[in-house]
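Section 3.1: Structural characterization of target chains.
Under the original work plan, the team committed to producing a structural model for every single-chain target entering the pipeline before any wet-lab resources were allocated. The record below documents one such target. The sequence was received from the expression subgroup and is listed exactly as submitted; it comprises 258 residues.
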Amino acid sequence: MPYFSILPTTTQYARNSLFSGLMPKEIKDKFPQYWKDDHEDGGKNLYESELLENNLNKLKLIKLKHEYHKITNLKNGIKLSGNLKQLLQNDLTTIVYNFVDMLSHSKTEMEMIKELAPNDKAYRSLTNSWFINSPLFEIIKNAANLGFKLIITTDHGTINVKNPTKIIGDKNTSQNLRYKTGRSLTSNKKDNLIYNNPHDILLPKTSINSSFVFAKEDFYMVYPNNYNHFSNYFKNTYQHGGVSMEEMIIPFITLSPK
């Protein structure tokens, strides 16, 4: 059963909203201590557990016994798989597994990953090969044996970008290739979706005249400086943040043990 991500389709925005039950502007307004804008230094998803706690309180589920776990490396994944039985005492256990998101970023940054996954078919094969040998698969199998009910979903998808489009902005413009936020942004309206008032879609403003630009289809935004170099460098990499079915339509499945 699919549902839809919010814009921008990035972890900073979509996963914080998923856990909080709020749109990014509402998070910034209600919990400014848990929100950082794109141009600010520091982690953008450091308070997912706190946002989830507030959401459960809002839903009057304060008595729900719950735990939150974020798995960012192999060691922690193996440890959690081995300790899964201890989580049976919880009413809700939330597990964030970051690997697939990290893999899509690595395809941009590492030549070896580019060689291993030059197209969609190879990328899916690489992801599948990792999954069947990963602690995540062991967690799912162990959870089934222990009688857990599993809900599996994500916060956004990703897309293989192929067509560069020029954008102009100041030095504080965000760095993501599929969306930009900042002041005085100039872009091609045919290739992008533009919101001059971010509050219209419940996104925060960084200044009174800041806007959001979202790349459509398989476009990616490149600045005029060194345009040819960067358009070639990022072509055929996996990106997210923009408007495409691959990024916005995301899975949601409930699994019950037999």
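The CA atoms of residues 166 and 227 lie 8 Å apart.
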